[in-house]
UniProtKB/TrEMBL annotation:
Source species taxonomy: Bacteria, Pseudomonadati, Pseudomonadota, Alphaproteobacteria, Acetobacterales
Pfam family for this entry, one: Catalase
Cofactor annotation: heme
Protein name per the record: Catalase
Region named Disordered: 1-36, 426-456
Skewed-composition ranges (Polar residues): 20-33
Entry EC no(s): 1.11.1.6
Family per record: Belongs to the catalase family. HPII subfamily.
GO MF entry, a single one: heme binding
InterPro entries assigned to the protein according to its UniProt record, in alphabetical order: Catalase, Catalase_AS, Catalase_clade2, Catalase_clade2_helical, Catalase_core, Catalase_haem_BS, Catalase_immune_responsive, Catalase_large_C
Active site: H89, N162
Residues binding heme, per UniProt: R86, R126, F175, R372, Y376, R383
PROSITE patterns (UniProt xref): CATALASE_1, CATALASE_2, CATALASE_3
């Protein structure tokens, strides 16, 4: 079809604008020179530049001249643009926001941030994957980092957590081994951003303490729908201290107001190809469009007496405290309301340190936390190149600072005046002094015992909570765990490693273990792994551990992919858009041509994706709005059939115009149409469809073995 000429020269404004756009700037300017509002280009030294297109050289075709300071400075700076990526959590995405206190904790902590209800504290959050390098894809099966920097009035508090409340190892000395095992093998440098390989599972199968965490990572928690739909956990037990230095143990939780949501594995694999930036794009788009993600901060508070009675050691980071035993008290909310101005300056240079805690918050003896407190400071110097990384704006506290630290690479602020030491006898001019009353004080715990390298016996039950997690899942989630482990082990080449993993699963759940063994085709089910005391105890299920039981309540903030063709009924199209807007949901129009479609009444609708660029894996639910002619076009387009079959396989709700019916036939799904496939004819249908999409997925479609 010929492209119609636009005589006005301006883009035709359509009735249906996309819910948000990622474009910025004018995008259409050609080479322009300074003048008017356009600033003059300068060198880093401020020298105005006359020509930025050509190096200084002899004649038109002669050699370049060393004298060309502009060229040299430009290339020199470019050559030094990279800094080392983080040794773990290299791929991350950050945003700014604030924390607002909704319930005072003045009874248990003197931390300034927890005193006054309604008070807002600026925050910066960086989400991340762990294993992949900086340029890896977003939807790897992995743990997600959830690092929060809170710029409190008494200094920065870094709560450097994950989206999983437990960890693989109990002692920090094992961290390099654990990380080496999951990262690409040193000889071949693959696989990238994956745990499905021999080295990782070899380490895991020889490290029984990791199995609780393994259950979480192999569950759908390992493939979140986006950062907005996942929980965060401080993991370790921390302490709160009140003004009398009375200690209360505390565990921190971030609960997304959006609810919990994940993708399925087959979908994740395809998302990574279709949009490697799926998670960062989601966060950027949500915040940019004013749909600010929000989490509640919850605390589990308990004392020594509870800690003594609890079946597990509260210092063991492979254990959680079930919410049924110690309820989570909501005390505030975290809102992310603006994206970064510059990725490098903020997200890349932000330096989280677990040891950054303000007065009123203190550490426990968790051996992992103790080790982290050493590692984070060290790693920032390596990454950012100077002990003055606190001078970088994203890392600088927003409260007054006064100390005698000075000099070093890139020192931006040095003490003024004569005295750069204390004690001194220069009076008020001599600079800051200690403040025993207001300053940070550690909890005066009494420690005794021989100096030894010993793992406490109270850390030795590795399976009870792993089982508790498993039995707390819905059947579909349990199936996904079995599928996840089977997939990963199918990529493990050594049969003995596969068997060794199953030998541990037998302690967690026999049916899970035998299912995995069967799906792997193990010749024999191995003997259960040898265990040290104590053996497993049976713990009750906990609803808080399931994603499906804690999903979003509506379709708000989620995304519908509308595959639409020319000639589709204009009323139906408008009805669906109205229903989505009423629900505060997003949508994208996917069409055979990126130029868009023309509805039955002649209205032009812009498309945001051409079919092969907008597969259904990128959307939470889909609608296929096609005319009779349009359905024929879709039926002869392989990507359109994939759009439908993938949406169907991934248990998505599918709305369709009656004319689009035949696409089901062409896609081989004519006999499978179920209650998750909803025919759309009227405004009521559209409203009901969008409401139904709030239920996440039509899980009934996935067969349980
Ligand atoms: Fe980290 N971890 N970690 N970690 N971690 C780092 O610090 C480390 C652990 C976590 O967005 C590094 O700045 C050790 C648990 C997050 O910038 C490094 C141990 C938890 C981030 C480091 C752990 C985390 C990191 C690498 C075992 C959840 C990203 C770059 C004792 C509670 C922060 C950096 C960001 C980053 C060390 C275990 C979370 C090397 C030694 C447990 C979210 O310092």
């Amino acid at each position: 079809m010929a492209v119609k000429k636009n005589t006005s020269g301006k883009a035709a404004k359509t009735k249906f604008e996309p819910s948000y756009t990622e474009q910025q700037g004018n995008g259409g300017e050609t080479h322009q020179q300074a003048g008017g509002d356009v600033a003059t280009l300068t060198s880093a030294q401020g020298i105005p530049v006359a020509d930025d297109q050509n190096t200084l050289r002899y004649g038109a075709r002669g050699p370049a001249l060393m004298e060309d300071f502009h060229f040299r400075e430009k290339i020199f700076h470019f050559d030094h643009e990279r800094i080392p990526e983080r040794v773990v959590h290299a791929r991350g995405y950050g945003a700014h926001g604030y924390f607002e206190l909704t319930d005072s904790l003045a009874d248990v902590t003197r931390a300034a941030i927890f005193q006054n209800v309604g008070e807002r504290t600026p925050a910066f959050v960086r989400f991340s994957t762990v294993a992949g390098s900086k340029g890896s894809f977003d939807v790897a099966r992995d743990v997600r980092g959830f690092a929060v920097k809170l710029y409190t009035k008494e200094g920065n508090w870094d709560l450097v957590g994950n989206n999983i409340p437990v960890f693989f190892i109990q002692d920090a000395i094992k961290f390099p081994d654990m990380v080496h095992s999951v990262k690409p093998a040193p000889d071949r440098d693959f696989p990238q951003a994956q745990s499905a390989h021999d080295n990782f599972w070899d380490f895991i199968s020889l490290t029984p303490e990791s199995f609780h965490m393994i259950m979480w990572v192999m569950s759908d928690r390992g493939i979140p729908r986006s950062f907005r739909f996942m929980e965060g956990f401080g993991v370790h037990t921390f302490r709160f201290l009140d003004s009398n230095d009375r200690s209360t143990f505390v565990k921190f939780h971030w609960k997304p107001k959006q609810g919990l949501q994940s993708v399925v594995w087959n979908e994740a694999v395809k998302i990574n190809g279709a949009d490697p930036d799926f998670h960062r794009r989601d966060l950027w788009n949500a915040i940019s469009s004013g749909d600010f993600p929000e989490w509640e901060l919850g605390v589990q508070l308990f004392d020594e007496e509870f800690a003594e009675k609890f079946d597990f050691d509260v210092l063991d980071p492979t254990k959680l405290i079930p919410e049924e035993l110690v309820p989570v008290r909501t005390v505030g909310r975290l809102v992310l309301d603006h994206v970064v101005d510059n990725f490098f300056a903020e997200t890349e240079q932000v330096a989280f340190c677990t040891q950054n805690v303000p007065p009123g918050i203190d550490f426990s003896n968790d051996p992992l936390l103790q080790g982290r407190n050493f590692s984070y400071l060290d790693t920032q110097v390596k990454r950012l190149g100077s002990p003055n990384f606190t001078h970088i704006p994203i890392n600088a506290p927003k409260c007054p600072m006064a100390h005698f630290q000075q000099d070093g690479h890139m020192a931006m602020h040095n003490p003024v005046g004569r005295a750069n030491y204390e004690p001194n006898s220069w009076g008020a001019a001599g600079g800051p002094r200690e403040n025993p009353k207001q300053g940070f004080r550690s909890f005066a715990s009494e420690e005794t015992g021989p100096k030894r390298r010993l793992r406490p016996e109270s850390f030795s039950d590795h399976y009870s909570q792993a089982r508790q997690f498993y039995i707390s899942q819905t059947p579909i989630e349990q199936k996904h765990i079995a599928d996840g482990i089977t997939f990963e082990l199918s990529k493990v080449e050594r049969p003995d490693i596969r068997s060794r993993v199953v030998s541990h699963l037998l302690h967690i759940d026999e049916e899970l273990a035998t299912t995995v063994a069967d799906h792997l085709g193990l010749p024999v089910v191995p003997e259960p792994a040898e265990v040290t005391q104590p053996t497993r105890t049976d713990l009750p299920p906990s609803d808080a551990l399931s994603i499906v039981k804690n999903g979003p309540k509506t379709f708000a903030g989620r995304k519908m992919g509308i595959l639409a063709t020319d000639g589709v009924d204009a009323d139906l199209f408008a009805a669906l858009i109205a229903a989505l807007q009423a629900e505060k949901a997003n949508y994208k129009v996917i069409a055979p041509k990126i130029g868009g479609i023309t509805l039955s009444d002649g209205t032009k609708v812009a498309a945001q994706q051409k079919i092969d660029g907008g597969p259904s894996v990128l959307y939470d639910a889909v609608a296929i709005l096609a005319s009779k002619e349009g359905t024929k076009v879709l039926a002869s387009t392989p990507a359109a059939k994939d759009f439908l079959t993938d949406a169907f396989t991934h248990c998505k709700y599918i709305g369709y115009s009656s004319e689009a019916c035949t696409l089901f036939k062409k896609a081989g799904l004519a006999d499978d149409v179920d209650k998750g496939c909803i025919k759309l004819g009227s405004q009521n249908d559209a409203n009901a469809f969008v409401k139904t999409c709030g239920n996440l997925r039509f899980w009934q479609r996935e067969k349980l073995d």
